[in-house]
Amino acid sequence: MKVWKFGNDVDTDAIIPGRFLTINDPDELAEHAFEGVRPEFASGVQKGDVVVAGRNFGCGSSREHAPLALLGAGVHIVIARSFARIFYRNAINTGLLPLVCGEADEIEDGNGIEVDTAKGVARSGEKEYVLEPVPSFLQEIVRAGGLVEYAKNLKELPLCTGLE
Amino acid sequence: MGATIVEKIFSSRCRKPVSAGDVVMAPIDRAMIHDITGPLAIEKFREMGGTKVFNPEKIVTLFDHQIPADSIRAAENQVMMRKFAAEQEIFHYDLFEGVCHQVMMEEGMAEPGELVVGADSHTCMYGATGAFATGIGSTDMGFVLKYGALYFRIPDSIRLEVEGRFPYRVGPKDLILSIVGDVGADGATYEALEFTGPTIEAMDMAGRMTCCNMAIEMGAKTGIVPPDATSWEYLQERKEVKPFDLASDPNAHYAEFRHYEVDSLDPQVAMPHNVDNVVPVGDIEGTAIDQVFIGSCTNGRYEDMAAAAEVLGGDAFSRNVRVIVIPASRREYLKTLRAGVIERFVEAGALVEAPCCGPCMGGAFGLLAPGEVSLSTSNRNFRGRQGSAGAEVYLCSPQTAAASAMYGIIIDPREV
Question: How far is A125 from chain B (nearest CA, A)?
């Protein structure tokens, strides 16, 4: 499990460029993940690797191909100082776990990383990093593994109320 | 404590008072999908067990990103969406009308007080009429297609007050670029941007759309202009609607206030590779360009085309620049054509294409090679957005685009 470190404002065009959006299959999208900005990612990424970034990860387009490309690449967790809103929702909905970490900038590229989601910590480079929990109203969707599974189990639409 | 316009819209849709920070499953008034995000949304709808959409009259499907199909795959996706629209009895615009957001506005699909979602980030543009409109992903959209509702955390609002009159050849795009530069790419994340003040009140709908369109470039959930005579008149030209009052209370709570004045605003340019990397045009004058794109949901309306043509006058575009002009919709195309503006562009050497997203999203045509530079009236200049990751994209107003296209370098449109 290795860290793939990125900077601030990683946009969805960087994650998956517009010319690949006719592809809907995660495995095939993964072949083009970060193609323009980090060409070695697609061939080097291993199942369970973690993407770590600075502020505003996933800004830009609403394309769900972005979290799908990461999932197809075997990345199930993204740790960032902050996330752009649509990407954050898309990640939760598709089963990619977006975790906010105030100290994400300190995590180094290429280091090993272990993420303990139950305890809310990540260990990398002999240091422990605190991860903020996903907002409570989204935890049910996270537990279900995404919005599709959540919807399948929905007995009644909680219209005009919260999700809790 | 009073309520913001956004809190009022959610309270009205949920039929109970709600405020910023509350999480609600809110009913959706209208939903839009296009050729890129639609296929996945339909797949998710089916995975959720969906068989019939919640209400075909509230769903809009159209194609604008890769039209006419530029690959067999794009064609296959479009066939799949056509079939879906037919089986669900959804009125389908196909590829005939133009860019989704412009079509939604023209067709009166976003009324004041409505809650509208689109599977495209620039859906925030519909706030120009006083709707709450936001972009969502395909799984969220699958849920909407099935249930006609979606969960929202009601956003805080930032109030932007704009005063003053635009100087010669400076306009709404320059204003919104300067605001993006000031607020930053994530300065409004999860929040709503409410545009107010005399400059906004005096602004036409085209300008309001340009401003609301780019709210997402600050991370905002939406941009919104409280409805007034201008917006009601725009809607009444399209459908039967009865004006009503909808505005924030004077004592509403805002997360932030920001004040802008445009009397001495210079033309603005966003430099590569972030939309908030904004400078006055004078700072980068002389930068050589290979391609100019005048169009997109941000600046593809008749008003934008006319503003570009006014700068062009009777001159020609530089032979060193590929000038691609794309009106945002069939209606805007016709209006521009009938005004003689399209003829002028063609005479001057531009390539005028049929309404679509064009080079903006770097999927279909007009892609850039490594080392090439594009100047574009669209909304994003991310690395690789319009082709090679080794290319550069600058963003500007239609006036700056036209002036620069005439000389092959970025220049101040006031100097032409």
Answer: 29
